Fold:
Amino acid sequence: MVMSFQFPAYFTAIFIITRVMSIMKISKPLDVHHKDIRAVDLATKLSVDPSAIESASRDFGGIVKAEPEAVLHPSAPQDIAALIKFSYSSSVPFGIAAKGHGHSVRGQAMAENGVVVDMRSMANNRRNGTGIRVSIDRLYADVGGEQLWIDVLNATLEYGVAPVSWTDYLYLTVGGTLSNAGISGQTFRYGPQISNVLEMDVITGKADFLTCSPRMNSELFYAVLGGLGQFGIITRARIPLQPAPKGVKWVRLLYDDFSSFTKDQELLISKNGRKDKSALDYLEGSLLMDQGSPDNWRSSFFPHKDHPKIISLITKHGIIYCLEIVKHYDDRTKHTVDKGMKQVLQGLNYMPGFMFGKDVGYEEFLNRVRSGELKLKSQGLWDVPHPWLNLFIPKSQISDFNNGVFRGIVLERNITTGPVLVYPMNRQKWDDRMSAVIPDEEIFYTVGFLHSSGFDTWEAFEDQNKDIMRFCNKTGILVKQYLPHYSTKEEWVHHFGSKWKVFQHRKYQFDPRMLLSPGQRIFNNN
Ligand code: FAD
Structure:
């Protein structure tokens, strides 16, 4: 078990000593042992600078704060392996957390009194870093775990290809989303991002540097995908690619009736073959509630002239459900895509007169959240607390959830600021050997309460989140958290359910000293 680093002084001492050695190395290179050179290298990449510590103590959630003793700025995977080896073989091991882009909301990428590995440092080191390498013949990209998905998109588009499964927001790292699942409107058809990985390089908690795939070190491969950073640090992932579309037909449909909304969603995701040309390329859904504008920071979509009629609809019903779908097109299909979309829309039960469409470039669509982010940043509203709650709910209970939570708790409390997402996906597109936890039913919904709050008001949102979880427990809704956060071991055991034993066994196998991602508080929560 990791001791909480009683070694600020100890580590700082090592730091100073190795720096001294570094100076000695310059004057007496032949006296320096190979092992010491590695320590010297490592020490020069460790920072105890207050600004580095401060930045590693925060995340997008803005709720949890935990200070590490030091931050590693690796320039190559070997630096990470050296750090893990150092802790693994130390009599006083310390926790180590890879920090991707720090977009967790509950301190998952923090390491209190340990060392945070700032993965993004490797992106700045083009010579030693893993970078993004596109193999156009074999239709895959080898991508460093530290890379942002936006950079993967741009690099692959240069070759006219792209990955098939995305997140809504692209300024997240490959290692960060693969440690969770990586879901969006493509998931119903292509599976989450973790279902779209061919192989990975991983440094385990024993400092073993292994390549893994479904055929090679497969136990590690499946453990790491959705593994919440518990088994190893991903330094490279091989992502399959497909020819990229040119543009997308993007449609939103409004419903006042939840049952029609979900029935249509489920009908649409029933066509989900990867090669089925009549299938949609993206499907999501969200709630529109009384917030002054039908648009939110995640996307502005509705024409201004239509805002008044949408707002009066929301005022009348309290909640309006918005179904969002996309069909891709390229040069070959641009003349037939409208016909295809028309066929999709036939027989759907949205409210007449409440269908809105757009035609945008593929990259603009995938990167649709960015402009909202930049706007919020310019207003100083991006770095506010984000008491988010993300859930997976079995299809058979989504109607109870609507009645009890959307129309009950949420409307009654009336504190919602921020998007609320609700859309279904197919279980068969997930791989049960992976660590990610999802409900048992073939179709399940994701619901995301993506709250932004004031610095003094986040607790009210947290109370609402707790109320929602209590309601689900009380009424037997078999909800699973996505991007989970719990504080007790019992809660984690419950979360993993039948997967707990395997998860725990893999932890002993790949990280027996419990070094990695301590901020998840799974094995070190007391
Ligand atoms: P971090 O927060 O830095 O790390 C997350 C966890 O992964 C930590 O435990 C960390 O230790 C571990 N980790 C990081 N890098 C590695 C690595 N290389 N190897 C092993 N472990 C590692 N998620 C979705 O699925 N779909 C969405 O559409 C979506 N949209 C989002 C929009 C916004 C604005 C935000 C803030 C988050 C969104 N998320 C979404 C959630 C996001 O996928 C997770 O929070 C993800 O972990 C963030 O990636 P990151 O690079 O910031 O990871």
